[in-house]
UniProtKB/TrEMBL annotation:
Keyword Magnesium: yes
GO molecular function, one term: thiamine-phosphate diphosphorylase activity
Record protein name field: Thiamine-phosphate synthase
Biological process according to GO: thiamine biosynthetic process; thiamine diphosphate biosynthetic process
Free-text remark on how the cofactor is bound: Binds 1 Mg(2+) ion per subunit.
Organism: Staphylococcus pasteuri_A
Taxonomic lineage from the root: Bacteria, Bacillati, Bacillota, Bacilli, Bacillales
EC identifiers of the protein: 2.5.1.3
Domain of life according to the entry: Bacteria
Sequence ranges assigned to domain Thiamine phosphate synthase/TenI in this UniProt record: 10-195
This protein's UniProt keywords: Magnesium, Metal-binding, Thiamine biosynthesis, Transferase
């Protein structure tokens, strides 16, 4: 799938660990797709995360949902799964597999890389990378291993160095603080709990879309 920066506008990230007990991830994703998310990342992490065949089965089901809405389906970290199911792309962090190691297998795919600060940017090879995910913007309950928040100011600092290179903000973003991200000139926002735990996903997504239309 051809990558466009506009696909980063409302980028939903989710795994089973992010879903309230009374809901299913398929229901939540369907509602998010109906509301107008522009990209989805399957991020299955934590002690009770699905593994092996169960993880692959769910990934395929969520991938099929995304395909029906023509929304890119990205796999977090798991390069072998992304290749096996022919996902639209892969997103890796600084401590995950090096992009160079799998870039040849993803030449026609979307590759995202997490960049938390200036020093990580300066040591990152973006040759094969389509976009960077910058954060955490604010304190976040969704990632137990998250670093200290860098705030929207980091978007501004990286923008001065990176120009128009596609950049999506992540971490603790809510309807209340999203304006500061848009004002910092990010291409979009990555959302986990603000969507997965929303009481009205349609309203939440539409509120975000006001700032990234």
């Amino acid at each position: 799938m051809e990558f466009k920066a506009s696909q980063l506008k409302i980028y939903f990230i989710c795994g089973t660990q992010d879903i309230p007990e009374q809901k299913s991830i398929k229901t939540v994703l369907t509602q998010a797709l109906e509301a107008g998310i522009t990209m989805f990342q399957f991020r299955e992490k934590g002690e009770n995360a699905l593994k092996d065949n169960e993880k692959e089965k769910l990934a395929k089901e969520l991938q099929s949902l995304c395909q029906s809405y023509h929304v890119p389906f990205i796999v977090n970290d798991d390069v072998s799964l992304a290749k096996k199911i022919n996902a639209d792309g892969i997103h890796v962090g600084q401590d995950d597999e090096d992009v160079k190691a799998f870039a040849n297998d993803f030449q026609d795919k979307i590759i995202g890389l997490s960049v938390g600060n200036i020093s990580e940017y300066e040591t990152s090879d973006l040759t094969n990378v389509d976009y960077i995910g910058v954060g955490p913007m604010f304190n976040t309950p969704s990632k137990s291993d998250a670093s200290e928040p860098v705030g929207p100011e980091m978007i501004k600092q990286l923008r001065r160095r990176i120009g128009a290179f596609p950049m999506v903000a992540i971490g603790g973003i809510t309807e209340e603080n999203v304006k500061s991200i848009a004002d910092a000139n990010a291409d979009g926002i990555s959302i986990i709990s603000a969507i997965s735990r929303s009481q009205n996903i349609d309203n939440t997504v539409n509120e975000f879309k006001k700032y990234f239309n």
